[in-house]
Amino acid sequence: MKIKMQVVSDILKWIEENLDNNIRIEDVVNKSGYSRRGIQLIFKEYTGLPLGSYIRHRKLCRSAMLLRLTNQSIFDISDQLGFDSQTSFSREFKKYFDYTPNKYRANPSWDLKKFRARIILDEGNQLVPSFRYLNDDAIFGCNNNSYKISYQKSFLQPSTNDNDIRLDIVKKNIKTSKKTLLILSKFKPSKLDHHILDIDTIIAFEDSIIKSNEGHKRYDIDSGLYVMFPYKGNWSELSSFSRKIYTEIFPAYGLSRRPGYDIEIFYYNDSLLLDDYSDITVECDYYIPISK
């Protein structure tokens, strides 16, 4: 990688790590070692964007994530990201997203069309979505083949424990059966902790999808358009995979998430029998409901 390109790449990473610290162009200048004009020219050469605009857009997009995935107040979000006031933040937010912060938070669908994804220079393989139409279906709680659990996690700052909870679920259910496993998840900001998501998850084997089963809890999978991404890799990277879909791929393709379950279909492989999590290879298809 060229020296100038590496400088810009380092700056882009630093901006992401410091969005909550009220960063200014002067901070980037000091970080880079270049003059103000010099770093602005280099930044635009490699990104196509003015440095100040990029920082402002990334802050607004960070605020959009906080609005959708936390219960932080609008005042706290505007203050955290260094806006002059809640009024100026709300004005800039509406100008950029065409929604007030309150309406953006309350919208049943999550519109990511104007979301400015972080720029990563010289990135390897890009995720390419495929689009699938799923018919109405349902999972029933029969013969212990499906059940519901609830847990909490942070989407913005995931922990190792978050991964362990989910992997334990997959390992426990797939280890003995060796069947394809479905995980259906809905999420919403927790009312008890501003920074945490409440996750409601349905666990089921593929053969739990049946047409009727009287007397058991029914979980509906709505028909409609879904975007699908295949994943094969280390378990520890699966959380960053889903975050990348929402924060980078959705904006790049102008997608909007509609209400419904995120659906993960996990396929059995022998590595799921191993005790060491670092040796486990995960194979799954990830479906997210989207608007046309």
From TrEMBL:
Quote any Pfam family the record assigns.
GyrI-like
Gene3D superfamilies, A to Z: Homeodomain-like (1.10.10.60), Regulatory factor, effector binding domain (3.20.80.10)
Transmembrane ranges, per UniProt, are: none
- Superkingdom per UniProt: Bacteria
Key words, A-Z: DNA-binding, Transcription, Transcription regulation
Q: Which residues form the HTH araC/xylS-type domain?
A: 9-107
Offer an example of a GO molecular function term for this protein. Answer: DNA-binding transcription factor activity
- This one is known as HTH araC/xylS-type domain-containing protein
